[in-house]
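Exercise 7. Predict the structure of LacI family transcriptional regulator from Myceligenerans indicum.
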Amino acid sequence: MARTDSGAMAASGAAGPTIATIAREVGVSVPTVSKVLNGRADVAAATRARVEAALEKHQYRRRRAAPAPTASGLIDLVFHRLGSAWSMEIIRGVEVAAAAHRTSVILSELGGEHRPPQDWLDMTMTRPPLGVLLVAANLTDAQHQQLDRRSIPYVVIDTDGEPPPDVPSVGSDSWNGGLLATRHLLGLGHRRIACITGPSDMLCSRARVDGFRSAHDEAGVAHDLSLVVNGNFYVEAGYEYGLRMLSRPDRPTAIFAGSDMQAIGVLRAAQELGLNVPRDVSVVGYDDLPLASWVGPPLTTVRQPLTEMGAAATRMLFEMAAGQVPAVARLNLATELVLRESTAPPSR
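Solution. The predicted structure, encoded as tokens:
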């Protein structure tokens, strides 16, 4: 049997193509194919494209020569955006699970984009990592195939959309979270409830709004479409939309914010307008970040198990790196309402 780079063969066994087979078909050297597989930059773009096309045509998959030793390896943790307490909770969960395997974590940030650029993928393949965790982001089909050919597994956390069937994901029950928050406000007697959700291109944002609407339908209460807006999960959006809504002559008596950070922005807006929370307006957040219990008033919120989500996704990744198939491909953790002091019945 012909020797190949790092013992690489197709996952299907000896009948699959070798690097030498690919090299002969494309008309390049075996080292050139090896460079493409390893993400090396010193290959012409046109040559790289031809090699990648041949790899995909033959459904080439690299087989790991042996399981990665427990004392080595890296995990790439990629956020679509960093910079909030929300991301710190996920990082904490990932690091705890990775430390149990004596594995380090590398952080990357996509500047708000939900798909990484190709140069990120090229850099990733030069390491290569034990696996990749993507938060509120995913790969293109071509990028997915490139990692798959190199036996680099990846897991998506809080996906922005439905990932491919062979890519595991970990999230929380955002629909139920929106339902619980809105049921609570309706149960207090509120009938004009605003919703400041997250970006419309994120699955969790849409699910929370669906829960918000379902709670209204369940109670037989119509909701005002003009009171439902898309924010960005950050303080500034909560402040901006909070000012706008609470300045209306028909202002809402309650606001459900799609994140604790947006809820804090709403609290600031209410304060600037001379409104008391919860006497004049009730506010519900989402996430139950540590700071939610320290703001004034302490924030009623929906707890999303962010640390547990990060840890669970990391454990899945280790299973896949060891050649195992995760027992559950779509893990959706429970959400729960945490009652504090920012909600009350509407004043007369």
